[in-house]
Write a structure and sequence with these properties.
Blueprint lengths: L3 E11 L4 E10 L2 E9 L4 H19 L5 E6 L2 H8 L1 H6 L13 H13 L1 E6 L12 H26 L1
Helix pairs in contact: 1-4
């Protein structure tokens, strides 16, 4: 069995209604596993982080022999968090204004998970055009945007009934 798993992640959010979703595709050998989830009262950045966290946790739970993860994301925010870990720690996760960094709960969780495994992050361009080649980034984008759209429609229909 391969020792490196590839994970494509994305997150989406309807900013006015704060309805969000995340999705990931985990590729290991010939297996493709799709994970997704929906959150209320959230932000786009939280969804991007949660996609990565849920994926790492899934791999740790179901593939204990995996020793290397390659995460592909179009989120500059997520990729940037990893590079700022030492700054966060030095500043005790506080901004220059003395406030906690945004999403501190899941930022800490992500950084802790990354410290327990060999995880490489790759930043790719967002919202690429479809080609003949399989593009899992486009696929996870469509999944999470679809979940947001469906949840927003249900929310609006429910509000109109009341």
């Amino acid at each position: 069995m391969s020792t490196t798993v590839f994970i494509y992640t994305d997150g989406s959010c309807h900013t006015q209604l704060r309805i969000g979703a995340w999705a990931s595709i985990i590729l290991l050998n010939n297996e493709k596993i799709t994970l997704c989830g929906q959150e209320n009262d959230t932000t786009h950045n939280r969804m991007e982080i949660l996609a990565v966290i849920h994926s790492i946790l899934y791999v740790k739970k179901h593939f204990k022999e995996i020793n290397s993860i390659h995460i592909v994301s179009d989120s500059q925010y997520v990729i940037g968090l990893i590079g700022r870990e030492s700054k966060f720690i030095a500043n005790e996760f506080l901004t220059k204004a003395g406030n906690e960094v945004r999403n501190i709960d899941i930022v800490k969780e992500l950084l802790n998970l990354v410290s327990t495994m060999n995880i490489k992050f790759e930043k790719i361009k967002a919202h690429q055009k479809a080609t003949d080649e399989i593009n899992f980034n486009i696929e996870v984008d469509k999944i999470c945007r679809g979940i947001v759209r469906e949840t927003v429609n249900k929310t609006i229909k429910k509000a109109l009934k009341n």
